[in-house]
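Record passed on underneath.
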Amino acid sequence: MVQMTSMFAGILNRASATVINVGASIWVMDKSVDTVANTIGMPDYVLDTVRSIPGVKYAAPIYSGGALVKLANGKYQAVAVIGLDDTSLFGRPELSQGKIEDIYGENAFIVVRDTEYSKMGSPRVGTEFEINDHRGVITGIAKVASASLFGVPTLYTTYERALYYLPNARFTISYLLVEPKTPGDIGTIQREIGALGYRALTRQQFIDKISEFYKYQTGVGTNILIMTVMSFIVGLSISGQTFYTFILENLEKFGALKAIGAKNREMITMILFQATFVALTGYGLGVGLCALVIYAARVRLPDYAALISWWNLALGFGIVVIIAGISSYIGVRKVLRVEPFDIFRG
């Protein structure tokens, strides 16, 4: 159960990778956008209008799209391209190699060193490639908090270069990144942008919206739910049967305890203690094994997206408690019905 929910948590985390890595406080988008990969262009006047809203400290456009890159060995590779505002570079990543100012150089791109980095041939600073019949040069290598879900490397460049190099529709602004003057201005900004016919979401609201999309509008959430329910049913049936068998095998001992004066309350406490000890031990071993499997999978498969979070552990613990409770109830009923006379008579 922890394995299944961890996989789902990893998928949701990577689905919001762009939002997490860019780090803007407010994202402005078309109302039809469901996920960060589903960009719908906005006209330029929206940027000017948003900048004039009271409470907006500054706003910058960002481009988000895809392209096909031809590597030096002749191989083609799909990539995600993010174009940063030329003036502010708002949303720029942290660089591990190179200088951010080099992004203004001719044909300059920054590549993200994540799990997809090797698909670009593990380029170094100065590596050349071809993108949409234009020359590109790696001028920096970035590190980000979250890798992409879609299995493609990520390139950063300037907004104007992205528009010039890549084919675009009539409207080119994918999102507007807005920083409020104070947290109290967020509500006003959202209302003003809503009246304009667009949607403004905080970073966490956008992440939640992306999560809801993958939970309820794709088959990912349903499939994970079905597998988790199956795990629960299997765990309940096996543990219930095992615990019931344990009670039957030791029924004479419980009858003997009753004969020497043990009260029902004490018998129930004994059974609950045994069930709790076994449940917690099994939970700890299960979580440890799950963490080991995820670690081993990540070593061999860098794209593996599983992520153990606190809610995975809490959910697994809650389900284990339910399984232990039902199993204990089955055992308690059998023990309470046993009579010392029947045991000794046999």
User: Anything to note?
Assistant: The beta strands are 26-29, 56-70, 76-84, 94-98, 108-112, 128-131, 134-143, 154-158, 175-180, 199-202.
